[in-house]
Predict the 3D structure of the following.
Amino acid sequence: MWLLVLNRSSGKGRANLRCQEFISLCNKDGVKYLIIDESNADKTEKSIEYQLKRGDIDAVIAFGGDGLVSLCLQQVCATSIKFSVIPCGTGNDFARSIGTHNKRVVDIYKSMKADNEIALDAALAKAGADHRWYVQVLSSGFDASVNKVANNIKWPRGRIKYTLAMLSILTRFKSIDYEIKFAAEKLSTPAMLVAVANGSTYGGGMRILPDASYTDAKLDLIWVEPVSKITLLSIFPRVFFGTHVKHPAVHVITAVQFSINAKTAAYADGEYVGNLPIDISVIPGALNSWICK
């Protein structure tokens, strides 16, 4: 049984159209499915949890953007349930990684039927008593401030809203004192931002950590030294190509677990996690997904 999870508002109705096309393919082949089509995220989350308790759900397929992907991940990570997304949002970073971005519904469906399955690493972030799974990037500092503002921008959509958010806070942002623990080492440093990546992109294809991989059982952490606002402005466009990591003020660390503390908040895959301190661990093979070839 496949569980189809729809965010009807995603893509200005495009999600519903793509879901109906997918349903037609399922009906044609006799594929059994259930549909979750709720009015808000809380109801969607509760419905997913209820349906998964039935014990006969083999896969969860999201019809929406990265927000819906994040919501579903909380239910499917560290289980045997397969997961995929028919992208209908503006960022679609996870969809880019598994090959469903800019693909026809019929091609994604055929890939699922062919069972092109892969076990992907996922990251688990713990802030106090709360925890959150993510597959792409956890951000803090300047990055998190940009994320918070961008989440409230309804138009324009896509990459440009992150650029606008960055420009809106650039003049008033100051560096933050961080403490980073990893592999029995401790780093105390002021930084403009600290981000921990399991996947290489966020914000609609920005390659924040271009060498991050879903299958290496490691996390990549990036931190940027305090720099002038003009320098930060010059570094930012390079994130779209991944060349910012060559800048002398940019540093990358690789480990399986990080503990980060600072007076700032963290966002994972664009969703609020909590205030630091926070612990992030990689869980190898925690997410069973389909790859669309």
About this structure: The chain has a mean pLDDT of 91. The longest helix spans residues 14-29. DSSP finds eight helices and 16 strands in the chain. The domain at 127-285 is CATH 2.60.200.40 (Tumour Suppressor Smad4).
